[in-house]
Specification:
Layout: H1 8-21, E1 24-25, H2 30-41, E2 43-46, E3 61-70, E4 76-87, E5 95-101
Helix pairs in contact: 1-2
């Protein structure tokens, strides 16, 4: 499955991720991101074996590229991933999160 990068749904997802990236967060808002991807573009995140993603993030900093799929069929998206980076300085109380669709 291919995502049309010029589609309204894709742009809406990028806009939502830009808003998240401008804010500080108590934790990494992956639940909110997953809900919004499903609402805006019928997308979900899947694991390498094709099952719905389950997990958590830990550490003061990190990055992942997550596989996107159609929320109904779980068919992987060939031309886009969710890129997610986070950072929390020891002096900060909240995480800086950068997220976008690649």
């Amino acid at each position: 499955m291919k995502v049309r990068r010029a589609s309204k749904e894709f742009r809406d997802c990028q806009t939502m991720l830009q808003v998240i990236s401008r804010q500080k967060h108590e934790g990494i808002p992956i639940g909110f991101i997953m809900d919004e991807l499903r609402t805006l573009a019928n997308l979900t995140i899947i694991q390498e074996d094709g099952t719905p993603w389950e997990g958590f993030f830990c550490g003061c900093e990190g990055s992942v590229n997550m596989v996107l799929a159609d929320a109904k069929t779980l068919e992987p998206v060939d031309n886009s991933r969710l890129a997610l980076q986070w950072y929390k300085d020891t002096h900060m109380t909240k995480h800086e999160v950068n997220a976008y669709l690649s």
